[in-house]
Amino acid sequence: MAFFICSNCGFGSASWLGKCPDCGQWNTLKEQRDSSTKEKEVTLKLDVKPLSKVVSSAKSKKNTGIFEFDRVIGGGLLPGAVILLTGEPGVGKSTLLLQALHNLRTLYISGEESAEQVKDRAARLKVNLDQFFFSETLQVEGITEGLDELKNTIDILVIDSIQTVYSKNVDGAPGSVSQLREAANQLIIKAKKLGIPLIIIGHITKDGDIAGPKTLEHMVDTVLTFEGERVSQFRVLRAAKNRFGSTDEIGIFEMKGAGLAEVNNPLVFLDEHKEEMAGKAIAGIVEGKRPLFFEIQALASPTMLSIPRRVVKGVNYNKVLLLLAVIRKNLNLPLDKYDIYVNVVGGVDVTSPAADMGIIAAILSSIKNIPLSNRVLFLGEVGLLGEIRKIFSQDKILSEAERLKFQRVFSSATIHTVKDLARQITQG
């Protein structure tokens, strides 16, 4: 019995269709071989052993030499670990990997750049070219066969990118759903079998999501996102999924002429200018084990539009709308008369609810035109009823704020409601 699979989205049909009902693409349904025509595979015997006999691989982690990278992936590279790295084009994914793997014997397979381009970048970053191997072979069967011969020669395999790799056994162009699944599956099985760490670079969509099937994320051990505005010098590495460590840790880098430099200063995202101006507030949050401090800016401008504008960058748009509703309900402010813009300085994203009070403080400061001191810190989650809640690891931020000599801290210990916060800002 024939079976037809869409090469674009993976939709299956018992009969051929000119247009895929799922994704709407034309002439993408390809006939697949019936399972009855496939060669019979040998049935493998179930192999069972107690976990007490399994040797832990935690001690065999390999450090890359870049602490910020090792921090995010769980302390180092484990044998057979599969990492999916994504980020916008030009953000510095290849630069990050070249620097992180400069001490390891690396096989770099690229369908995005030529050997000359990779060599020029590697030389600029002072990578040891003698132990850095390059290949333009993109057929996954050729890659997996070659790994058997190189298993004792290399420490890690990098695929840049998975959208350019294809299988000879699957119909469809490289980058299609069926090709992505098959190529990733073969690479992961081979990496696990040989105990070679595998890093896969993946494209992202216009919405910032990982391109390709969602199952690609489930197949790998770790999903990393490298983010930051190309016009900003700062980059942040986050783990969206990590089987070998926490997903709360982040790595912070600064893009310089010689490559990426690690950042350990918790005040790195604050504005260097100490002038007090209305519309900015300092928020403290904890990312993993480290306290960080961000400058949140807000601009409330009188509007003539019937529907005022809301422009948000660096924090969640819906979160800002929620906080505006809390302000309107509790403080009875005419927010419909203002266009409101909110931004996080540094071109990075802040996802922690600990920044809620800082966002509200910046908005109130702009509306009332009251400057806030650069030595005042805001930390606290704001509930729908206007209450200020204690945040995770609040004591750690308070301790760090004391060390950095912040003069005053607004938290759930001193401020209980949004009304209290507005009263304190008004009174100065």
**How large is the count of helical segments?**
10
The CATH topology assignment of the largest domain is Rossmann fold
- Taken as a percent bin, the fraction of beta residues is 15-25%
What structural class should be given to the helix and strand makeup?
alpha/beta
Total strands: the figure is 20
Rg, Cα atoms, Å: 26 Å
| Element-level helix/strand string | EEEHEHEHEHEHEHEEEEEEEHEHEEEHEH
Furnish the topology, listing elements before pairings.
Blueprint: E1 3-6, E2 12-13, E3 29-32, H1 67-73, E4 82-87, H2 93-100, E5 106-110, H3 115-124, E6 132-135, H4 140-150, E7 156-160, H5 177-194, E8 198-202, H6 215-219, E9 222-227, E10 234-242, E11 250-256, E12 259-262, E13 280-287, E14 290-302, E15 310-313, H7 317-331, E16 338-344, H8 356-368, E17 376-378, E18 381-382, E19 388-389, H9 394-403, E20 408-410, H10 418-427
Parallel strand pairs: 4-8, 4-9, 5-6, 5-7, 7-8, 13-17, 15-16, 17-20
Antiparallel strand pairs: 1-2, 1-3, 9-10, 10-11, 11-12, 13-14, 14-16, 18-19
Helix pairs in contact: 4-5, 8-10
Could you describe the 3D structure shown?
The chain is an alpha/beta fold and 428 residues long. The chain folds into 3 domains: 3-36, no CATH class; 63-262, Rossmann fold, CATH 3.40.50.300; 280-427, Ribosomal Protein S5, domain 2 (2-Layer Sandwich). The protein is 25% helix and 24% strand. The chain contains 10 helices and 20 strands. The strands form 4 sheets. A 9-stranded mixed β-sheet has the order 6-5-7-8-4-9-10-11-12, sandwiched between helices. Strands 15-16-14-13-17-20 form a 6-stranded mixed β-sheet. α4 packs parallel to α5 (177-194) and α8 (356-368) packs across α10. It is globular, with a radius of gyration of 26 Å. The model has no long low-confidence stretch (mean pLDDT 88).
